[in-house]
Amino acid sequence: MDPLIKLYLSLLLFFFSFLLLGEINGVESSSSNQWSPKKLFVFGDSYADTGNIKERQAVSWRVPYGITFPGKPCGRFSDGRVSTDFLAKFLRIKTPITYLRKDYGEKEWLWYGMNFAYGGTGVFNTKSSSPNMTIQINLFEQLLDDVYSQSDLSSSIALVSVSGNDYSNYLALNRSIAALPIFIKQVVDQTELNLRRIHDLGLKKIAIPSLPPLGCLPLYTSSQCCNETFNALVNYHNSLLEQVVAKLNNETNHSTFAIIDFYNAFLTILKNKGDNPENTRFETPLKPCCEGSCGNVDEMGAKKYTVCDDPESAFFWDGLHPTQEGWRSVYSVLDNLSTSLLKP
Questions:
Q1: What pLDDT score was predicted for residue 26?
Q2: Integer Cα distance of 162 and 49 in angstroms
Q3: 311 vs 290: CA distance, rounded Å
Q4: Entry's PANTHER family (predicted)?
């Protein structure tokens, strides 16, 4: 072949390759508008706790908890995985190690962040043994510079789970129902302070689930119907939380804070009985799989509870917590999760 023709063909091939690569790079750059967090830091309560309470101090370490995953009790308040696990899966990172286990594993376990959530806790003191949200953030702050650097935090996301323990504690103390709206405002105000502090410590993105419909939890339902009075109070909490998040995002000029809409996700599953091609159908969604005093036995060792034959057929595991299948269904119907959490 003529050398000039060879040169011409080579240049032509290079030119089209350049165009092709440009198009491919253009596609990649457009898809790279999504941000990929490297670590997940978790603060909160039993909806997010993956084993921070010491063994024998909570029912989450007793049979039948954990029967679906990992096959034995592991500190999760469910038959298996909980909210933290499903959020980590969505983010394509491993479930972060619990603060309790941080000194007992390989250093690689720290690569995916850390979970400080503790079952039963709230933004205020709820139990004498439960570190509230402020204490959890203190523990996190103590690890900065030593275990985690500022560059670690700038590529990380935080989950801040507030699921209602402050309110159950308020009611348990027989405090005024009429004054509950005032207390709700105090809870949300303290949540705002916590969010500001976590952001000031360097976290790039902070996810805050809305309060789920507490009036639909088996512990509070009447004749298998949701308590609409409770849910009205939940809506008040969530409306205040939305205002706080909007204000914080306006101050930062960025979508730093994002609400995960647990309220409507829970209701969608409960009202439709999970009737979705991607979901299990829950025939009696307000009936828990583990009924009675789940995880407890009497002085003779007899169980004070009964467990359904198939936990996957139940949305709720016990009186307060979803099953693993329940949590999977919730995350499957959450709208705009990618937009809110993976936007740079």
A1: 31
A2: 12
A3: 9
A4: (RAPE) HYPOTHETICAL PROTEIN, OSJNBB0059K02.9 PROTEIN
At residue 276, the pLDDT reads 62
**pLDDT tens-place string over residues 322-341:** 999 999 999 999 988 988 89
Instruction: Dig out the tokens for 128 from the structure.
Output: 């004498």
Angle between helices 180-200 and 133-143 (to 10 degrees): 0
Measured from the Cβ of residue 229, the count of other Cβ atoms closer than 10 Å reads 11
- What pLDDT, on the 0 to 100 scale, is given for residue 336? 83
φ/ψ bin of 66: left (φ > 0), alpha (ψ from -120 to 50), beta (otherwise): left
Residue type at 87 in one-letter notation: L
3-state secondary structure of 51: coil
Judge whether 289 and 307 are in contact, CB under 8 Å.
yes
What would the pLDDT profile of 242-254 be if each residue is shown by its tens digit?
Answer: 999 999 999 998 8
Strand extents, DSSP E, 28-87: 39-43
Cross-strand pairs, 40: 113, 157
Q: Are 295 and 305 in contact (CB under 8 A)?
A: yes
Catalytic residues: 46, 318, 321
Mind listing the domains of the chain with CATH numbers? 36-271 (3.40.50.1110)
Give residue 128's pLDDT: 72
Helices (H) and strands (E) in the chain, counts: 10, 8
**Are residues 244 and 294 in contact, defined by beta-carbon separation less than 8 angstroms?**
no
Specify the DSSP class assigned to residue 220.
T
Residue 290 CA from chain centroid, whole number: 22
Integer Cα distance of 22 and 15 in angstroms = 11
Which tokens is 319 given? 């009186």
What is the rounded distance in angstroms from the CA atom of residue 45 to the CA atom of residue 315?
A: 19
Nearest Cα to Cα of residue 260 among 309, 211, 297:
211
| Residue 81: HSE in the Cβ half-sphere, 13 Å Cα cutoff | 18
Query: Which segments of the chain have a pLDDT < 50?
Result: 3-32
